[in-house]
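One such given next:
>
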Amino acid sequence: MKLEAAGEETQSTEEVLKAQIALPIPNSPAYDYKIPQEFSSKIKPGVRVQIPFRNKKIIGVVVSHDKGQSFKGLRDIIAVLDEEPILRECDLMLSQWMSEEYYCSWGEALNQLIPNYLLSKTSSVDFFNEKYKILEDSVSVSVAPSPHELTEEQSQVLDLVQREEGKPALIQGVTGSGKTEVYLRLIEKYLDRGKSSICLFPEIALSEQIKHTFIERFSSRLEILHSRLTPLEKFKAWLKIKSGKVQIVLGPRSALFAPFSNLGLIIIDEEQEFTYKQDQVPRYHTREAAKKLAELTGAQLVMGTATPSLETRYACDSGAVARAVLTKRVTDRTLPQVEIVDMSEEFQRKKRPVLFSDRLKEEIDKNLQEKQGTLIFLNRRGFSTFIHCLSCGTILSCGSCEVPLTFHMGDGKLLCHYCEFKCKVLLNCPDCGQPTLKYGGMGTEKLESEIAKVFPRAKIGRADSDIARKKGKVTQVLNDFKEGKIDILIGTQMIAKGFDFPQVTLVGVVLADVGLSLPDFRANEKTFQLLTQVAGRAGRGDVPGRVIIQTYQHDHHVIQNASRQDYEHFYSEEVERRKELSYPPFSNLVNIILKGKVEKRLLDFANELRFHFDQHNKDKESVVLGPAPLPIHKLRDYYRWHLMIKGTDKAKILQHIRETLAEIKKPSAIQLLVDVDPVSVL
């Protein structure tokens, strides 16, 4: 007998139905709950239920159910929230894999696959009731014919990918070689088989730009998913996909979890992009999750880029990934001519730092006269990237993050790019009181201001994360640029890849070497990829392109290889360096990040963690680095230390971490994050 009013728990020896419920709680297992008789026909894996947990009522997902003997503490499910499972069997399997691979609870991984609209909805949902009924009774089945004939290389690539069905494939094609057309043909072939496709892009703005090409070809069979949709908009799109009203989904990483019942193809464009790694729990990498989803569903995984990640390119060498190569641009267009300008010489000649070399000014002026588009790339936003006092040497920093404040002229504020702290512009140094503050460094906002001074009649636009905060603004700027309403577009890495601007004949790169000095073993790779990708925006129309790379390290092998767009030479050099240092792809990395407001307590716990991990790692299968402060040592008032673990057996590393954390008590004031396969250690 259940004595709920008295607060007593179910205690019976008869055989009962029980369900295993995954909860979105860190480090929690799936919990057993009793299935009341009235819910026995409704409980299925993949439905949401409301359950009592501690002193609250929360939502969990049924992951399995069976019969068993009840025991003390088994509590009743309160309500079943779905008429039918909202998650597929492959969703349950994929999320379980994500929880094991990326060190999170099963419920946390499951929440990644459920629309936010449903995460907070506690009433029962019938997906096909009148309120959410999809009004279209029929689905458009027409596919517009391609306006393009495939080149011989494109045809060969298409054939190779189809022959390698069942195995991940990489399309490595130079910028402008027509990878998108190959994607479209592959999608058509899977549509002919009654199969659906997911096509992922690294940026929302890129998805918005490319959608027009897809709409022209596939019309109403297409849906777009991204984080800027409202929860209700996402839910309605999710319903259309789940009900089979659309067969193609575009979007950034979260679109991977579109609930197709007949998935046939997954495409990851610009697969090297680091935005495919999620920086919140679950910290999954889209590429690896896509491989697992393809394995679970039998779908074909196709990745495309001009500059593959070292991990993917190395997987091609080992035979784990098929590789198809496009060496030429379509319609015999040539790759842009690249010129390196040594800014050290420019400084010596003018006896002062300059933003623009005479060569870049000359080429911009030429483009303006000929009414051709110019793209200027600088991977820093803001006006001045640091402010220092000439009297006492103080650099104005964020008190919460200990990073230099950046001056943003548009807001008239000093801003921290990490915690969004803002303050008014200061006239006097806060330390010595002298009016000797100097604004140094530069970002895209200052670049825009300086170009406007040199070319006052030019129409100038800017695309960076400051602009992206205004809904629809980046898309508007990019459309205006494409339509010729903007002469010169200035931007950060968001404009460096994927975009096709036929009118752009000149690309200028300012401070090309800014990323090479970062304390990151991937710094060379990231810099090479960015330079090669942004150079590839030039000359995609009928007029050949030119690229001016301004740098203080003109003879650096990364700069030289990027100027030649020579990926293979860069890869052969970089992969040897990684091998010598035992970095990915020759090892796995797990970064344990510790955050706390009292640094001594934080360091004491970090040392304790290191000691206990070493006890489990007595055979020295893994190498432990640290504890050490992170490069950005203080962030949002929290000090940050980390342990980096490097080894060839990822499963063994994670096992040792679980064993270590199970035997030590973490102080509640300390936050602990486990980042598997980190793409950055800043």
Notes: The radius of gyration is 27 Å.
